[in-house]
Amino acid sequence: MFDFYFELPLLVRLLLQGTVVILVLFPLAAACSMAERKISAWIQGRPGPNRTKPPLAGFLAPLGLVASIPVLGTLLQKLGIFQLAADGGKFTFKEDPVPGHVNKFYFILAPIASMIPALSTVAFVPFGAYFDAAGELVPVALANVDVGLLAVFALGSLGVYSLILAGWASNSKYPFLGGVRASAQLISYELSMTLSVLPVFLWVNAPGGQGTLSLFDVVQSQSQPGFWGGTWYVMTMPVSAFIFLIALFAETNRQPFDMPESEADLVGGFHTEYGAFKWSLFFVAEYAHMIVGSGIFCLLFLGGWNPLPWVPLATVIDWLGFLPFAAHPLFVGLLSITLFLGKVGFFIFFFMWVRWTLPRFRYDQVMTLGWKKLLPLSIANLIVYALGIAWLQTR
Amino acid sequence: MAVVTVERKPLTFLERTYLPNIAAGLATTFKRMVQPVETLEYPEQRPAIPAGYRGVPTLVYDPNGREKCVSCQLCEFVCPPKAIRITPGEIAHDDANAHVEKRPEEFKIDMLRCIYCGLCQEVCPEEAIWLQNQYSMTGYTREEMVNDKKRLYELGGTLPDTHFKWDKKKAAEEAAAHGGAHH
Q: What ipTM is given for this predicted complex?
């Protein structure tokens, strides 16, 4: 089976890989909306959506059959999985009105434009790894390029264009304000975010080595033997991780930084005039950004697919040596992807947890925090680490 | 009143970063998340109705199965939204309760008008109309929302009685008739 796959032309393989990743990421992002509803509910002492159950008749019969499995069906129903399917159906088929006062072309372009960076950044994120025949660790990624992080930043920040476009094309004041806030917020926090990851790459690119911005190499440098080789960068560079996380919240427009949406003062912000499928595209894009952003945080600071600090993937595979298939690339790959997705899942949860803990910042507070606190802090952090790394690596 | 100026303590560095408070907030929300939910899942789980609850007005039987209402129409007159309509009727002479003389032939409460004020229950000299536990009335038409006599007795059922006013009256009358014969 593997031979057959590897004998396919490269273009076909890349197409297949890309389709698979999108087919996983898109529903995952959609599932985040249900996770959001459930976690909100639990934090507020409610059970959340737990009623929807597909009927055992008509075109929904296959789903209904799943729902009628004794324990599993009830569990899925309680977790709102069928509600998720119903939501998807609703967003796809309900009437999608376009208000009369909007600029139709850009109005329709905006949600499409939001999906492109959201689904393409994932191409540069290695989400797992396996050992090839030579015993080398090979990343599972669509494109393991040397400019990895730069490509993610470059594409990821395009996401805000869709917000600005939506705000402008809606041709009414609240969406417009939302779009303006989105762009201001992106500029304010992108700086700190970029500056905060520089120490990591200063450390990874030791003198004498080959220069790289690859996310895979960052994980590799966190899975070396020895005490300092196995530490995660969140321990050696906590300030960087902290700034990156805050900037990530701001970049993905999550509470407490959801200025562009800010339903209390801007109705719905940039998506005020949107409904149905176009609206859901914005939200799938937001969740996709969250997933990719959390993934990058895990790769940079939390050792990627290594289960614990000082316990790299290779060690775990050694421990699992009693299993006959432990060294099989498929097993190693799936194990690493599971570990990685577990970490990402925790961060998705963390995003939602913070949402129901912190109130939204006022707009001027967001700007003060970005320019007067985080930016100086990240510059100071960069200088301190640059000097420290220079001293350590040239000793 | 004297004005007392309270010194405001300057915030410490940690407090100004908000971080300890954010951590405390996260702890609070997490604790809330692992606690059991507060919600009653309504149609399956019903709330406990406290005593003295004023739900849908109903008509009741006494423990002997006699309908208590004597169609005096006080409730009809007192009803502020005029939700009650009573058609009084006579009890036949050969009936066991013939001494009560009157009962309602028809008794209608329009639940679209009823305001659940409980004045009907308060005014009733026979303790025949009671606002009981039922709190949810639904129907597809206006007609369905009018409770007629049959439905009112179905909803009301039988309530305990301590007086047995009409039985005592009958007994007293019989005793008097008896005694009168002796004298």
A: 0.76
